[in-house]
Amino acid sequence: MNRRLRVTFNSPAVLCFAIACAAVTLLGEITGQTSTALLFSTRTSSLADPLTYVRLFTHVLGHSGWRHLIGNLSYVLLLGPLLEEKYGAKSLVRVILITALVTGVIHNLLFPRTLLLGASGVVFAFILLTSFTDVKEGEIPLTFVLVALIYLGQQIWEGVTVRDNVSNLSHVLGGLVGSCAGYVLNQRRRAGRGMKG
Questions:
Q1: Mean pLDDT, the chain, as a whole number?
Q2: pTM
Q3: Which of 72, 137, 178, 190 supports an S-S bond with 125, CB 3.0-4.6 Å?
Q4: 132-146 as b/e, with b when 16 or more CB fall inside 10 Å?
C-alpha cells in the first residue's frame, strides 16, 4: 500500500494568525517600520482617530523584526494547534482578540508614551490555556499552578527588576486572559456534555 504524504492546513486560525504576523513583519521591513508604527503597534492617541481602535487589536500582529517574530511564532505554532483542536477555531480567535484588547487598553492607560507590539501576550495566553486542557470539575491542575508560578512569577519579577524593551505587563495580562479563558471554556464543555447525557 503506497500512500502519499500531503501537507494539510491543519489549524486554520493559528496558521492564518502566523501568516498575518509574518506578512506584517515583512511589510514593516519594506517600509522601514512605518507601517508597523502606523497600523500594528498601539499607544495612547486621540479617541477621535479611528486607527486608535484598530491598533488595539492589530498590535499583536506587529513585530520589531524577524527575531522577535520567530520567538513568538515558535510558541504560537507549537501550542496553538493543540488548543484549536480542543476548543475550536472560533474560541481561539476570541482568545487572541480579547488578549489583544486587554493588553492594548491597559498598556495605553499605564504607559501612554510607549509603543506596544508583538504576539507575546497571545503566547502567554496560550501557555496558561494549555495548562487547563485536562482540568476536571472541582480541581485545579498542579501543572496550571506550576506554569502560573514559573511563567507569570518570572514576568512579575523581571518587570520589577529588569529595565529592557520587553512588556512584562502584556505577558502577565495575556496569562491572566488565558487562565480565565481556560476556566470558562472548560466549564462550557462540561455543561455541553452534561446536556447531551
A1: 87
A2: 0.87
A3: 178
A4: bbebeeeeeeeebee
